[in-house]
Automatic annotation (TrEMBL):
Keywords of the record: DNA-binding, Transcription, Transcription regulation
Keyword DNA-binding applies: yes
SMART domains linked to this entry: HTH_GNTR (SM00345)
Protein name as annotated: GntR family transcriptional regulator
Superkingdom to which the source organism belongs: Bacteria
Organism for this UniProt entry: Spirochaeta isovalerica
Residues in HTH gntR-type domain copies: 15-83
Length: 124
């Protein structure tokens, strides 16, 4: 079982905690950080790590299961489902989510969207 790395929940965000968790796991699956059939962090362990209610984790995992990213085995946990590399629609959804989260953070710090665009153009 691979621990979910670098997952930090922003409790002040307008994005619900379960959605932040779901999107983080989805990004890791789509980017190949998890192999098919690999066990992900248990509900209990994830709840303890993030200090959130287990129902929050269950909601995130359930939605991932409904979207075809994980499957559950009663009494054993949740496992990564084989995902085709051609899941461009899903990748676009993750891209939009990550962009929205980034813009939310920089605007909270007093920067504008144009500031972000200018900075990205410098990097390119």
């Amino acid at each position: 079982m691979k621990q979910i790395e670098n997952l930090k929940v922003d409790y002040k965000s307008i994005i619900p905690v379960y959605e932040q968790i779901k999107q983080h796991i989805k990004v890791n699956i789509l980017s190949g950080n998890y192999s098919a059939d690999e066990k992900i962090t248990s509900v209990r362990e994830m709840s303890r790590m993030l200090q959130v209610n287990q129902n929050t984790i269950v909601k995130a995992y359930y939605q991932l299961e409904q979207e075809g990213f994980v499957y559950s085995q009663p009494g054993r946990g949740y496992f990564v489902k084989a995902v085709k590399n051609s899941e461009s629609r899903e990748k676009e959804e993750v891209f939009r989510y990550e962009t929205k989260a980034y813009l939310e953070k920089i605007t909270a710090m007093g920067f504008s969207v144009n500031d972000a665009i200018a900075e990205m153009e410098k990097m390119n």
